[in-house]
């Protein structure tokens, strides 16, 4: 089988290779010479063509300009002549067909040059008809060209400012055609400044290159234009006439002689190559015969006959190669025995590599609050890089280390580091002082590596992410600093979004008895990244022996950082290896990207009514995921009266009175939704947003249409009522202004009389309701009304933050039980009762000690009946005062 592999058919014999080399050398030489010579010829030809084209356009422009100027001179003379002599003078102008004369007193007259008209095979009546019904396709102030079938003429107008006479002449285009005929190789034409053709020697030619000429932004030039059919184009812009004079010639036509020379050169080259091939064949045999002997020797080697020799008499390199083969046959036997020993050692190293690979975490790790994406590759069979992590108490600890050198000794040091972390994992429940401090973790590892007496050292970086406090704590043992990526606004990444984790740098692990490592702290938030790496990715080189370096690495980070973590890691590594090319890396490479992610908020569903359950679970646009596990959910949507925790959303079919007296009074429930709520899905979504991202009224309606007003006393109620009267209610069952006024005035009254603090609060709460307190600007109450396609909303926001759930529920209970309302200290009284009764949703958002906002929402209904049958929803939110 081996002999068969070596005895394969020769596809490309050496003779042909020699022939090919000779042909390549000779052909290359001829080609280089031909390219050089033809290039010079082409440049010379180009200079001639461009110069000739430049002369052509200059001559064309000059003659046309003289023609136009001469005609204007004639018109000037005609404007000075008495009308009686104009006809005779006109007949002497062979190119003039017709003259329109208009005196200063608006007297008009027409003169015709019969001879010139008949020269065009036209009768006077035919000409007059053409002149009367001409189509003006191109206009240029006082010069224009007119076309009528096959007959066209130049119309020129002139006004003599001295005597007020205006003349207009129809002039033959023959002189213009004669000028163009002087340049038979070129297509000449004239353009107006708006791109329309003024005149063209070839009527069917519509390729004017106007846009390309204008883009040049020069007055005159000779350029090559056109994509499918290139042209050499010369142009000159006449600012006086506001015309563009152009001449063009096909490039293929201009360079016809050059192409002829190229074709002849190819024929000459083929003849020379054929001669060289014949000579090469004559001398190839003397080289191929010794090589055949060497080939036969390799066949014997494939059979294991290493004692065989080859006899080659030539004194050239092939003879030396034969001696090398003879020497190699003896050396192979010795190498075979050495290879057996090497294979045994390699198997042991592979085993060590496999064991070391188990020290590393998985490449992609998804944790509850972060994702980890890593890459590791050693420069040899075993490496000196290592990284690991551990989790405890909603914290994440990461360690990355780089031992000096690589190979088996460095790999043994990484095993020590791995064992240290495994031991520390056992301490997370017994000795948290160590695991809560990256500096102490490094000190712990340093003690373990000191036993090597400084023969092997290791750089390391340790960091701890505390998800609860959004803090990153880190310490450095002479490791290259990782990067912290922070881009809170989600902008396009720039270098300003990356910052190295700098600070006090301690000694390498194993270098000193006491490392004296220092903990550094920074804040860290969701969607931010920590990028850890070893110096191998920076110091590995490409084929030009250039290092990848910090600059290229940093540019790659910026370019890819907005990608998902796994794709981000892959792109960084791909960029680096694209730079290395096929050059092996000269150091181990480790890269770890840690991305902080938001904690997933889950909502559980506990509903008995199948129809209602189907309606709620179909809410695909809920801002949080739906779960069946109540234990790990942030809130529960339910219709069960026995499941009324404070953060539950209870959907109730009871009346408003029963909801107050039987549900809110007897539980801590903060969220109750009427079963017949018209927009239940939207209500749940909006109030979930308010629960986790409190923004007040903007979570419920589009704030762009809101109207707000500051209320300082009851005197401002008239302004509030005026705002409500003028508000647009076109999309409602009828104008709800009466309901809105009741809600607004009652809420504002309660807010005014329960404003202030200390003695002000006591005084105002006991004040006669016919007397209005006057609030300061700091105490001002913000009244807002707004609407969108779903809701009309009233918001009343004070600056006390005193309105609590117990106050609201107690007053509503008292109102429903006794049908009486108190207006005493601390009570909301009639105002809250009426606001609740008239609303589809009654929402209170209290920031303790800072503000209380009551939002009353009325559904946009087309029918009054739907409004009257409502069950009012109740939602209460309370936040800390520093929110």
TrEMBL record:
GO CC annotations, alphabetized: membrane
GO molecular function annotation: phosphatase activity; transferase activity
SMART domains named among the record's database cross-references: HAMP, PP2C_SIG
Transmembrane segments: 20-41, 267-287
All residue ranges annotated as the PPM-type phosphatase domain in the record: 369-596
Alphabetized UniProt keyword annotations: Hydrolase, Membrane, Phosphoprotein, Transferase, Transmembrane, Transmembrane helix
All copies of domain HAMP, residue ranges: 285-337
InterPro entries: Bact_Sigma-Reg, HAMP_dom, HATPase_C_sf, PPM-type-like_dom_sf, PPM-type_phosphatase-like_dom
A Pfam family of this chain: HAMP
Compartmental location: Membrane
Main location: membrane
PROSITE patterns reported in the protein's UniProt record: HAMP, PPM_2
Superkingdom of origin: Bacteria
A Gene Ontology biological process term: signal transduction
Entry protein name: HAMP domain-containing protein
The species this protein was found in: Halobacteriovorax marinus
Lineage of source species: Bacteria, Pseudomonadati, Bdellovibrionota, Bacteriovoracia, Bacteriovoracales
């Amino acid at each position: 089988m081996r002999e068969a592999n070596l005895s394969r058919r020769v596809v490309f014999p050496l003779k042909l290779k020699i022939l090919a080399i000779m042909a390549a050398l000779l052909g290359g030489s001829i080609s280089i010479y031909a390219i050089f010579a033809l290039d010079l010829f082409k440049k010379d030809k180009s200079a001639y063509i461009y110069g000739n084209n430049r002369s052509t356009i200059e001559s064309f422009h000059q003659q046309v300009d003289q023609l136009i100027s001469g005609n204007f001179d004639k018109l000037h003379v005609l404007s000075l002549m008495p009308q009686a002599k104009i006809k005779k003078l006109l007949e002497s102008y062979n190119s003039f067909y017709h003259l329109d004369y208009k005196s200063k007193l608006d007297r008009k007259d027409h003169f015709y040059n019969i001879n010139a008209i008949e020269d065009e095979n036209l009768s006077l009546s035919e000409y007059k008809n053409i002149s009367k019904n001409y189509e003006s396709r191109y206009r240029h102030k006082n010069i224009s060209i007119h076309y009528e079938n096959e007959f066209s003429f130049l119309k020129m107008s002139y006004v003599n400012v001295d005597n007020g006479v205006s003349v207009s002449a129809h002039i033959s285009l023959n002189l213009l055609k004669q000028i163009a005929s002087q340049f038979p190789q070129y297509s000449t034409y004239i353009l107006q400044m708006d791109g329309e053709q003024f005149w063209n020697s070839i009527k069917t030619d519509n390729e004017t290159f106007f846009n390309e000429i204008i883009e040049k932004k020069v007055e005159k030039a000779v350029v090559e234009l056109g994509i499918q059919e290139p042209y050499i184009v010369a142009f000159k812009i006449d600012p006086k006439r506001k015309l563009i004079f152009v001449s063009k010639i096909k490039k293929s036509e201009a360079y016809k002689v050059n192409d002829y020379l190229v074709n002849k050169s190819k024929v000459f080259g083929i003849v020379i190559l054929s001669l060289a091939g014949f000579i090469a064949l004559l001398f190839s045999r003397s080289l191929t015969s010794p090589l055949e002997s060497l080939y036969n020797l390799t066949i014997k080697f494939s059979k294991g006959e290493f004692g065989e020799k080859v006899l080659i008499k030539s004194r050239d390199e092939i003879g030396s190669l034969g001696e090398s083969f003879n020497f190699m046959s003896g050396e192979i036997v010795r190498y075979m025995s050495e290879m057996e020993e090497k294979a045994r050692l390699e198997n042991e190293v592979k085993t060590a590599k496999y064991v070391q690979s188990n020290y590393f975490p998985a490449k992609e790790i998804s944790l509850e609050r972060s994702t980890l994406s890593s890459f590791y590759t050693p420069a040899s069979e075993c490496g000196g890089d290592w990284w690991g992590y551990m989790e405890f108490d909603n914290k994440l600890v990461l360690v990355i280390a780089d031992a000096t050198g690589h190979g088996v000794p460095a790999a043994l040091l990484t095993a020590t580091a791995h064992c240290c972390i495994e031991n520390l994992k056992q301490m997370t429940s017994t000795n948290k002082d160590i695991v809560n401090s990256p500096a102490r973790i490094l000190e712990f590892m340093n003690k373990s590596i000191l036993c090597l007496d400084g023969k092997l050292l290791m750089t390391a970086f340790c960091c701890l992410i505390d998800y609860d406090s959004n803090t990153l704590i880190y310490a450095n043992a002479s490791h290259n600093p990782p990067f912290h990526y922070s881009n809170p606004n989600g902008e396009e990444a720039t270098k300003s979004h990356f910052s190295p984790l700098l600070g006090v740098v301690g000694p390498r692990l194993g270098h000193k008895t006491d490392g004296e490592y220092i903990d550094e702290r920074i804040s860290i938030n969701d969607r931010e990244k920590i990028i850890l790496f070893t110096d191998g990715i920076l110091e590995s080189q490409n084929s030009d022996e250039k290092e990848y370096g910090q600059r290229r690495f940093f540019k790659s980070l910026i370019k890819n950082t907005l990608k998902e973590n796994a794709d981000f890691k892959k792109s960084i590594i791909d960029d680096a290896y694209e730079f290395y090319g096929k050059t092996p890396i000269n150091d181990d490479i480790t890269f770890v990207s840690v991305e902080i992610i938001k904690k997933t908020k889950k909502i559980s569903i506990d509903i008995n009514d199948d129809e209602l359950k189907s309606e709620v679970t179909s809410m695909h646009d809920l801002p949080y995921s739906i779960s069946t596990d109540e234990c790990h959910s942030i809130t529960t949507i339910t219709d069960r009266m026995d499941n009324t925790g404070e953060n539950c959303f209870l959907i109730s079919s009871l009346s408003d009175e029963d909801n107050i007296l039987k549900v809110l009074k007897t539980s801590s429930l903060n969220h109750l939704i009427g079963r017949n709520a018209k927009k239940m899905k939207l209500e749940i979504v909006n109030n979930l947003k308010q629960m986790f991202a409190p923004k007040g009224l903007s979570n419920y309606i589009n704030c762009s249409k809101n109207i707000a007003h500051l209320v300082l006393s009851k005197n401002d109620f008239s302004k509030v009522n005026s705002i409500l009267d003028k508000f647009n209610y076109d999309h409602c069952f009828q104008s709800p202004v009466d309901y809105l006024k009741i809600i607004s005035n009652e809420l504002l009254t309660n807010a005014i009389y329960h404003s202030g603090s200390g003695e002000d609060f006591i005084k105002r709460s006991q004040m006669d309701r016919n007397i209005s307190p006057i609030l300061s600007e700091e105490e001002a109450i913000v009244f807002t009304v707004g609407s969108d396609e779903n809701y009309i909303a009233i918001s009343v926001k004070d600056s006390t933050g005193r309105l609590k759930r117990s106050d609201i529920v107690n007053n509503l209970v008292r109102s429903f039980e006794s049908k009486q309302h108190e207006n005493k200290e601390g009570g909301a009284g009639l105002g809250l009762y009426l606001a609740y009764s008239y609303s589809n949703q009654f929402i209170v958002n209290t920031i303790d000690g800072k503000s209380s906002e009551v939002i009353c929402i009325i559904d946009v209904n087309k029918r009054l009946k739907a409004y009257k049958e409502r069950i009012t929803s109740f939602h209460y939110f309370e936040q800390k005062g520093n929110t």
